[in-house]
Fold each of these.
Amino acid sequence: MILESAEYLGIIAFSASGFYIGKRNQLDILGIYIVSFLTALGGGVMRDIIIDRPPISFTQTLPVLIVVLITTLLLFLRHRYHHDIDSKPLFVLIDAVGMASFAISGALLALENGYNLQGVAIIAFVTAVGGGIFRDILINQVPYVLKGGFYGVIAIGVGIVVYLLDTAHILTTLSIILLFISTIVLRMVAYHKNWHLPTI
């Protein structure tokens, strides 16, 4: 139940994130839908291939339906009300929700499959950033995770924390909710403080 909730929340958030990126890059309607699909589902597809199971977006209708509904709703709101519904801080918040949700769902799925610490951390990272990597490559940009400061670090950290919580036998609904909130707060603080890893 927690795994599915995190998965679908991530899809909702990253569908909105993909819409924002598509609009910012002045893509046409088809382009916006494609970018939304890649952002919302790409990380999950990459994760499922790694753990050797059919991607859920290829076997279930709901993930695709969520992307279509969210993207269509945002297109309608943008056309109907003609105002900026996707400001930068709002985008960062939505993106943080998606990243936290997917990192947690990836880590939980890795645990279910018996992965060790580094396996859980890598699956959390891939699930959280895989869709964004596909999206950025498609629109001919350096993937944000490679230059976006603490974004990838936070995703890896979520995987490590989930593994440690499970090892300590305190991986509960409450601990996951607290981790989810903490991850979003940390991402927003990193954005506002402009935290970045060192560059050469």
Note: Residues 2-192 form one domain.
Amino acid sequence: MDRFLGKYEELLYALFRFMFGLAFIFHGTQKLFAWPGDAKAAELFSQRGLAGVIEVFGGAMIALGLWSAWAAFIASGTMAFAYFMRHAPDSFWPIVNRGELAVLYCFAFLYIASRGSGRYSIEQAFSRRRLR
């Protein structure tokens, strides 16, 4: 099959990385600051609070493209941990235990970890500047 969007691959990857990072940030702000939404904020020094910190800072690093491979690898592990701690005890199947989002984040971040920050990222901008 012809890759009709192939010429936009780097731009679409940057958009993919940015949107997943941004969505991850909002999961963290919901845990830490109860925003957006009306959930109760987590205590900072709790398992949920630590997850919120990883989500906010890791999501920002992924979205901006700053050490995205490492941030995404940690975020992927966090989502795998969340799945097995929170969702898997209810049922193995993500569709039954409502863990689809954790699984999707886990594998999306694993993909980002394998690709790195990409062309359109802060990391790439800094490396170009050093070459001059």
Note: The chain has six helices and no strands.
